Amino acid sequence: MDFSLSEEHIMIRDAARDFAKTELLPGVIDRDNKQEFPQELVKKMGDLGFLGIMVDPKYGGSGMDAVSYVLIMEELSKVDASASVIVSVNNSLVCYGLEAYGNEEQKEKYLTKLATGEFLGAFCLSEPEAGSDATSQRTTAINKGDHYILNGTKNWITNGGRADVYLVIAQTDRDKGSHGINAFIVEKGTKGFDIGPKEDKLGIRGSDTHTLQFNDVKVPKENRIGANGSGFRFAMKTLSGGRIGIAAQALGIASGAYELALKYSKERKAFGTEICNHQAIAFKLADMYTDIEAARMMVMKAAWDKDQGNNYDKSSAMAKLYASKVAMEHTVEAVQIHGGNGFVKEYHVERLMRDAKITQIYEGTSEIQKIVISRSLIKE
Fold first, then answer.
1. pLDDT digits over 86-135, tens only?
2. In Å, how far are 124, 128, 214, 216, 224 from 144, measured between CA atoms?
3. Which end of the chain is less enclosed by CB atoms within 10 A, N or C?
4. Which of 27, 92, 24, 100 is CA-nearest to residue 59?
5. What are the Cα distances from residue 351, in Å, to 33, 41, 72?
6. First CA to last CA distance, the chain
7. Is the dihedral of CA 360, 362, 367, 370 positive or negative?
8. pTM: predicted TM-score of the whole model, two decimal places
9. Does residue 129 have an active-site annotation?
10. Measured between alpha carbons, how far is 242 from 96 in angstroms, rounded to an integer?
11. 74, 259, 363, 380: which one is catalytic?
């Protein structure tokens, strides 16, 4: 076992950390208040290679490994989870999905632009009645020979109003169940494709989340990803990798809250000494650090499994389940350590607490992760 980072990994981590502190931090509270999408910052992240981290350089990507990806995600998430989820979706769901399952024409046309940040992507699976139950797709794609006609609604879509390329999961043959589902590439501006109002959310308020409507949208046959009926497998495998990104996001949120709490505890005095010297606070810090380190090991193990070509379904589900739990519990503790100041926006921890909750919900709720883990255990 080797738990040390390579020089390249340290350089990548430090570059992301510097970007988060110098570029993301200055306006993060204002963006949260205004629900403002960080358009210029997304462009800068594209220029740094953050939007195509694991994509092969021949398609314009950075060609890095999954460990590099989670290091970048953690550092960005310490400061701005709204920015980091944009990175996660574009990398884990959209770029990965196209690189792993798309054909060369699709990669040349779309992946090359997504990996560089020229295009932004969105992944469209969830529906009003098909969030966790991905087999119950109501969105339909009727085969018309050289094209499909797409009808339906997708909910809670990250990058929903800002994306240029949408990967849409739809039911082609309901009688075949999960084997009758396909994945399609839909371009923004296609006739019949409408974007609903932006969601007013508890957390990650700078992230762009919308409901999408597809009304007789004509999708060329060449925009279907993979073989006919492969859409469900495409979605599940893509989400499995996506969970590594969200686990890293949860880790970053927890780690950022811990760092703020530790710093504050060394500055704030009560009863004649810094509050970190009081056992009640010191023990909170000890619990936070221990749980965060455990979460980090799980996230790194999932990323390592992916890099080694191992099956990472279980390890990614475990990492997301645990890291999101740690993020929720310890952002609450960070607010508590800050006392009244923790309830005030300028100290950042209240935002991290609000951002933490979504990591237990999107890309598979914590309950879904337990299903994935238990099924994997039973099969072993």
1. 999 999 999 999 999 999 999 999 999 999 999 999 999 999 888 778 78
2. 22, 26, 16, 12, 13
3. N
4. 100
5. 10, 19, 20
6. 24
7. negative
8. 0.97
9. no
10. 9
11. 363
